[in-house]
Design a protein that fits this description.
By secondary structure, this protein is of the alpha/beta class. About 40% of the residues lie in helices and about 15% in strands. The protein has helices spanning about 1-15, 25-45, 100-105, 120-140, 155-165, 165-170, 200, 220-225, 240-255, 275, 285-295; strands at about 50-55, 65, 75-80, 105-110, 145-150, 180-185, 230-235, 260-265. An eight-stranded mixed beta sheet has the order 1-2-4-3-5-6-7-8, with helices on both faces. Helix 4 packs across helix 5. The longest helix is centred in the N-terminal third of the chain and has 22 residues, at about 25-45. The model is unreliable at about 1-5 (pLDDT under 50).
């Protein structure tokens, strides 16, 4: 009986929609999120000069969008990777951060990827490396003053796996333009997640959980690059998600001895409005990014 109870507890802990206080049910939370990001992404697409569906790989999901093609060539770039437990959401409805950033003279690149179960998680991690290679080479070609990455939930996991790859960063043209990353309500330890319904689509074998968990990676190389990391979670996220953000911060601080890091729990925000707010003209991502640009670029 205890094992069944533990599994039920894990299922709830890794179901962020069950912890929001904004709507009567978890289904309402998810439906609102999809409707909201779809509407705001359409508005961004309609109002910002762009180039869409740029292929960075050979499979259908390996495409990205550049919003803000009218901005100066040397404009800073934010590359955004959506969440959805590697199996839901899409690039097309993840353009919503772009309008406020465009007003602040920042280009947005929205990265898509193939979803599970069509792709395996290791394949998705490699796809993000392909996308990042495109972003860095584009930044180098344009003379961008700096590149930032942001990821939400599973997207934060993918950003951290990218950042952990020292060889990739060392060998990729333009990677010296990397300035910082925003890791929002991320999942950094997959060991428990494989025992939830999330794994029905992800199909991650137990022996892959640790190698694919950023919590067990090394990030020492980022210190020399002076990369700034902003680790954020919502006050109304599940205890597990908040714990994972704290544990990842502690790994970087205590083991990797990183100095340019920030951990914050956003008051009165849950797993979804912590990124929905990116569509607002005044939002913490834009404000943190603009502050970082003014201070360091």
């Amino acid at each position: 009986m205890s094992l069944i109870t533990d599994d039920m507890d894990l299922e709830k802990e890794y179901s962020p929609s069950m912890w929001s206080t904004r709507f009567p049910s978890a289904r309402d939370v998810l439906q609102h999120h999809v409707n909201f990001v779809t509407t705001e992404s359409e508005a961004a697409t309609n109002n910002i000069p762009h180039k869409l569906e740029i292929e960075y790989g050979s499979t259908p999901g390996q495409k990205l969008d550049i919003l803000g093609t009218d901005l100066p060539d040397d404009s800073p770039i934010l590359a955004y990777i959506h969440g959805g437990y590697w199996q839901e959401l899409s690039r097309e409805i993840s353009r919503y951060p772009a309008q406020p950033l465009h007003k602040s003279k920042v280009k947005t690149i929205v990265i898509g990827y193939d979803l599970c179960p069509v792709a395996t998680l290791p394949e998705i991690v490699n796809q993000i490396l392909n996308a990042a290679k495109f972003v860095f080479e584009y930044a180098e070609k344009m003379g961008s003053r700096g590149v930032y990455f942001a990821g939400h939930s599973a997207g934060a996991h993918l950003v951290t796996k990218l950042l952990s790859n020292a060889d990739f960063l060392e060998q990729t043209s333009g990677s010296h333009r990397l300035q910082g990353a925003f890791l929002i309500s991320g999942v950094y330890d997959l060991r428990e997640l494989i025992h939830t319904s999330v794994n029905n689509a992800v199909q991650l074998p137990q022996e892959w959980a640790v190698p694919l968990s950023p919590l067990f990676d090394c990030f020492n190389h980022l210190q020399a690059r002076k990369v700034r990391l902003y680790i954020l979670a919502g006050q109304n996220d599940s205890p597990k998600f908040k714990k994972q953000s704290r544990e990842f911060y502690e790994l970087l601080y205590n083991t990797c001895l990183m100095q340019n890091m920030y951990l914050e729990l956003k008051d009165n925000m849950d797993h979804f409005d912590i990124v929905e707010c990116f569509a607002n003209d005044d939002n913490y991502l834009k404000n943190l990014l603009v502050h970082d640009i003014r201070k360091h670029l």
